[in-house]
Design a protein that fits this description.
Length: 74
């Protein structure tokens, strides 16, 4: 999962360059929401260590518009 997130780093940098900090905020909210939902429904530490929730939030955040309210991205 780490390698896939590193491969998406240019897309994150481009989103930040074109849309500013609002893109980073949407990405952060989507990633935080996916991690918290995975933690809430599966409290085993093993499920959080493989970073699938972070990747899911990152992919979701990259598909969302940068002007989206943060509670919707969450």
């Amino acid at each position: 999962m780490r390698d896939v997130m590193l491969a998406l780093l240019p897309a994150v940098v481009a989103a930040t360059w074109f849309f500013g900090t609002s893109a980073l905020l949407v990405l952060g909210a989507a990633m935080l929401g996916s991690v918290l939902v995975e933690w809430f429904f599966d409290r085993s530490a093993r499920s959080l260590k493989d970073r699938t929730a972070l990747l899911t939030g990152l992919l979701q955040g990259l598909t969302l518009p940068p002007g989206l309210p943060l509670w919707m991205a969450f």
